[in-house]
Amino acid sequence: MRFLPLLAALVLSAGAATAKAPCGGSFNSFVDGLKKEAISKGHSKSTVDKFFASARFDQKTINADRAQGVFQMPFLDFSQRLISQNRIDNGRRKSKQYDAVFRQIERQYGVSRGVLLAFWAFETDYGAFQGNFNTLNSLVTLSHDCRRPDLFRPQVFAALELYERGDFSPTKTTGAWAGEIGMVQMLPADIIENGVDGDGDGEVNLKTSAPDALMSGAQMLSHLGWRKNEPWLQEVDVPQNLDWAKSGLDHQMNARDWAKQGVKPRYGNLPNLPASLLLPQGRKGPAFLAYPNYRVYFEWNKSFVYVTTAAYFATRLEGAPRYDAGNPDPALSGNQMKQLQKKLKARGHDVGKVDGILGKLTRAAVQKEQIRLGLPADAWPTTALLNKL
């Protein structure tokens, strides 16, 4: 199953406006407003007219934007759905095929190859499925839509800049429904800021050149704060008598201090780095130490389940064993999760949107209520917690 349209929506853009962007109303009038703004930014009227001449509203883009149910899946289900032996085998073949490129990336950016291979796999199946949505139509449609215009409106003008450079076609450039382009799916503004000519042909082509895409992805991670040559995620075994209230991304201590608490790595050694104990499905499921680079993933994608799956898959591609799935308590259904979020909001917790997705804010609120109610505070919501609330 192809996940590209579902994953793309949560990618962050560099340069999103802070003020609420104009949206809605007549689509043609909205496009006229974009054209006027483009001219006010210094683009010539003739160029602007040519760029927007083919812009059309795309209902398929809106439909894809609203279809985000996959993120309601718990980590084990989500990761097993995305990670297959075929993707692991293909990743290892790509690692050998582009070994020289990965070695250059590792020297220059300190980004381990597994990290980029995992993004490459999940975003486009190593370039095989890059999306067939007209990029301009998607960006203009999502800018017109009032759900997240601040994110997408700046991307329209970035695409215009790429058009002026000869690197974008209003009628032919295609990609994901949310406007990302190429093998690792980058938005136009990110291409401008982080695009790298990895193959030395004088162009940055993220759709057909794997070296360009990989080098650009590494540059983007570096720009987002990736710490050179440091780990990002490591599976661990945890003692059953651990203070679970210390788990979660809001809590951190040195990995070696975690060792003093009885936390043991399932492979490798524990580094001298700050780490959070991550329990994606509670104390009875798999456990990981998340290092500072893990948090950079959230600058690429906001979904907790996607980030954790991508980070874990990166370790698998570099030889880590399959996780110990354990025997976690059953996950709440989507409707139960929404009920939980409403109850948490009623108690004054910030859980963001009531969407049935167990994200960072909901996890933090769950843990606080578990502490209050005297339950194991592992941030994994259960029917027992729901009933007590």
Compact summary:
The protein has helices spanning 4-7, 27-40, 45-52, 59-66, 75-82, 85-97, 99-108, 113-124, 135-144, 149-165, 188-194, 210-223, 255-260, 292-300, 304-317, 334-346, 360-373, 383-388, and strands spanning 133-134, 174-175, 233-237, 253-254, 264-265, 274-278, 287-290. With 389 residues, it is mainly alpha-helical.
Task: Explain this structure.
By secondary structure, the chain is mainly α. It folds into three domains: 4-66 and 130-223, Helicase, Ruva Protein, domain 3; 233-317, no CATH class; 334-388, no CATH class. The protein has 18 helices and seven strands. It has helices at residues 4-7, 27-40, 45-52, 59-66, 75-82, 85-97, 99-108, 113-124, 135-144, 149-165, 188-194, 210-223, 255-260, 292-300, 304-317, 334-346, 360-373, 383-388; strands at 133-134, 174-175, 233-237, 253-254, 264-265, 274-278, 287-290. A five-stranded antiparallel sheet has the order 4-6-7-3-5. Strands 1-2 form a two-stranded antiparallel ribbon. Helix 2 runs antiparallel to helix 3. The two termini are 37 Å apart. Residues 26-314 form the Transglycosylase SLT domain.
Write the topology of this structure:
Elements: H1 4-7, H2 27-40, H3 45-52, H4 59-66, H5 75-82, H6 85-97, H7 99-108, H8 113-124, E1 133-134, H9 135-144, H10 149-165, E2 174-175, H11 188-194, H12 210-223, E3 233-237, E4 253-254, H13 255-260, E5 264-265, E6 274-278, E7 287-290, H14 292-300, H15 304-317, H16 334-346, H17 360-373, H18 383-388
Helix pairs in contact: 2-3, 5-15, 6-8, 8-15, 9-10, 11-12
